[in-house]
């Protein structure tokens, strides 16, 4: 059964018309069809043809790479993988008409925040001279046109609005406000640090700030900060946070050189950022987190699961498909890194480094089985690492 979660004015700023919602709902449900019936058909081809053919040929046990090479010859997998790419591009394209109509007003609302008489609760600090990392310039992450950093006009926030709406269509179970990953990291933090009350929190790779929202609710007295390289994302996030009445201090910076002083934060979090980060950049980011973290503070990140740890080889191929068809080329590389060693070289003591698992928090809309929407722990979990300085 398809997820029919929707967003409302209480959740976001971008409001599609009825016709636009229909087109976007089709794109959302097409992706769910891809990972439902289309995936199951490809799985049957794998079990009924690929595995027996490999055994009859006396081949070595199939792994992720050899299984994918064999599946590339199967029509069911060709259909599944082609539609995977098409559905992702369709999600972004389905938002275009809404952006054309609504972004001019959002820009006016954003400019009003910059007026001398305005008294925003949070802040926005942009760096026009920032050099976007080359690994982000090399591709449109998630096939999103222009990726996170491109500005189509002066003072642009269109890609922030595109990301916010498109990411929801891509993963509606992450919640109407895009805060599911933040709920997962918060649950893990509260489990391991039940008495902690961090006064200053930073989110590295914050995008439009959705994952910070649960932290704002959990620690209303905390000072919240978010860093990202994408100015359009930060402008949109700043505008949304102000309209929601939540003070967040957004800053445009590379996570490897944030510009914050030493020993500044009680807690640093990051959500599904490292799988979009070059392995060469990871050590510098972890070292920077250690520098700006207070003694006794915690650095915690959650990210996509370790595909190689899943026993089902076909399921490994499915997840690995995001690297081939959805421009997430660093996902597999992320899990080849020696995270404890990277943390140790950054200055964290080995006994204070804790790789782990954070159950995904999934948003279930209201329906016949539950009269009110609710959050539940999903069957998959985020890969997580936390360390105390």
Notes on the structure:
The protein has a domain at 121-388: Rossmann fold. Strands 1-4-3-2-5-6-8-7 form an 8-stranded mixed β-sheet, sandwiched between helices. Strand 3, helix 9 and strand 4 (248-252) form a beta-alpha-beta unit. The chain has helices at 18-56, 64-71, 75-94, 96-113, 134-137, 158-170, 180-192, 212-218, 231-244, 282-292, 313-325, 331-334, 339-346; strands spanning 123-125, 200-204, 223-228, 248-252, 265-271, 293-303, 353-364, 374-388. It is globular, with a radius of gyration of 21 Å. It has 389 residues and is of the alpha/beta class. Helix 10 (282-292) packs across helix 13.
Keywords for this structure?
single chain; 389 residues; alpha/beta; Rossmann fold; eight-stranded mixed sheet; 13 helices; 8 strands; 16% strand; globular
Quick summary:
The protein is an alpha/beta fold.
